[in-house]
Amino acid sequence: MSKTIIITGGAGFIGSHVVRLFVTKYPGYKIINLDALTYAGNLENLRDIEDSPNYYFEKADILDKDAIERTFQLHQPDAVIHLAAESHVDRSILSPLDFVYTNVIGTVNLLNTAKHFWKDDYSGKRFYHVSTDEVYGALGETGFFTEETKYDPHSPYSASKASSDHFVRAYYDTYGLPVVVSNCSNNYGPNHFPEKLIPLFINNVIHKKPLPVYGDGLYTRDWLFVKDHATAIDLVFHNGKTGDTYNIGGFNEWRNIDLVKLLCKLMDEKLGNNAGTSDSLITYVKDRPGHDRRYAIDASKINKELGWKPSVTFEEGLSQTIDWYLANTEWLKHVTSGAYQHYYEEQYHKR
Ligand code: NAD
Ligand code: TYD
Fold first, then answer.
1. Alpha carbon of 29 to those of 18, 57, 128: distances in Å?
2. How far apart are CA 347 and CA 351, in angstroms?
3. Fewer CB under 10 Å: which end of the chain, C or N?
4. 40: helix, strand or coil
5. Are residues 43 and 137 in the same domain?
6. Among all residues, which ones are annotated catalytic?
């Protein structure tokens, strides 16, 4: 089988793992990584596969209709896997409009382009929208998000993702665009920009900086290793039912403070520190406004229908993640200094 797939946001955290998986697992596919290279896009994430004959990079903003149309014309895709987004809740609290532009308008722009380009002949076509469990809002002590849970977003980030999900489903209901959607829990793993909890705290432990725990630290998230998310995306893309939604989660709930203590313990062991050294960096700080108390995914549908389950335990995945950051200090240095933003010029303009 041969397919041409545009993967948006492929230079980001999850997107880079999806691009690598597709480029290496499906040499007969043509994979186009379409990314604007915002602060979160880092082509160094894909250095190992950038010379693969089935990999192409297009620097384009999903808000730029002409650039998106040109990319469709040039590559003639059968499918889109859409991950490009503004993705950090704290940034969305500071600049909500950026999230409306990219996550809502950018998604509608892509939907329109796919619809027009495929000219309503949808055989063999697929538009896969990658979303988050945060659209469902917050849980109390018990219960899980299922695919039927009513949307109830609280942050500007989750409100913008919820809106994009609605548009994707509206294009299925109204125009028959063959969409599929997945909503995933919190990811962690290599190549994660150090502004989210786990990579930020790994970086801060390395540099002996305070670990800012929001509020009482009892907020709960369901954590999934990023490579397990990529394998779930592979399955949903190939075998998911058109028009359906799949929840993806780690069956792995952690209160923030317990997670941070485990991370500190593992890092002390790996760095040869005395037990308790990194714990002493924990600092409780002012809470995030509108902070969702608990997320937990019921991933039984994707497990039963598509046979997916996570491949690593949290302890294994977290240990691998810390090892990756300790072995990739150059990557971390480039990301924190901003040097990674020159990589595109160096790599793609020298040709
Ligand atoms: P990320 O912030 O690491 O990467 C986003 C990528 O999108 C970057 O490469 C960036 O350059 C690109 N991008 C941003 N705006 C763009 C635009 N206007 N045009 C083109 N490219 C643009 O994000 P991530 O954590 O990898 O998340 C990827 C997707 O998965 C997002 O849609 C997010 O909502 C979803 N998701 C993330 C998580 C998580 O825990 N990180 C969990 C569930 C779902
Ligand atoms: P984050 O990684 O930003 O993901 P999300 O908000 O999308 O779940 O945050 C995970 C949890 O960690 C969330 O409850 C907020 C909390 N947190 C802190 O306590 N301190 C921090 O510095 C950060 C970034 C997050």
1. 13, 14, 16
2. 7
3. C
4. coil
5. yes
6. 133-134, 157
Q: In this prediction, what percent of the chain has a pLDDT beyond 70?
A: 99
User: Which pair of tokens denotes residue 137?
Assistant: 């809002």
| pTM for the full predicted model | 0.98
Nearest to 197 by CA among 178, 174, 220: 220
- What does the pLDDT read at residue 192? 98
What spatial distance separates the first Cα and last Cα of the chain, rounded to whole Å? 31
Q: Is the pLDDT of residue 345 over 90?
A: no
Please state, in angstroms and as integers, the Cα–Cα distance from residue 299 to each residue in 33, 88, 178, 229, following that order: 28, 23, 23, 12
CA distance 20 to 44: 12
Answer whether 229's CB lies under 8 Å from 13's CB. no
Pocket of ligand 1 (CB under 6 A): 8-9, 11-15, 35-38, 40-41, 61-63, 83-87, 102, 106, 130, 132, 161, 184, 186-187, 193
pLDDT tens digit sequence for 157-200 = 999 999 999 999 999 999 999 999 999 999 999 999 999 999 99
**Residue 275 lies in domain:** 197-220+253-294+312-341
Q: How far is the CA of 18 from the centre of ligand 1 (A)?
A: 12
Nearest Cα to Cα of residue 267 among 220, 317, 318, 215:
318
- CATH code, 115: 3.40.50.720
Strand order in the sheet with 220-225: 186-188, 220-225, 253-255
pLDDT for the residue numbered 351:
47
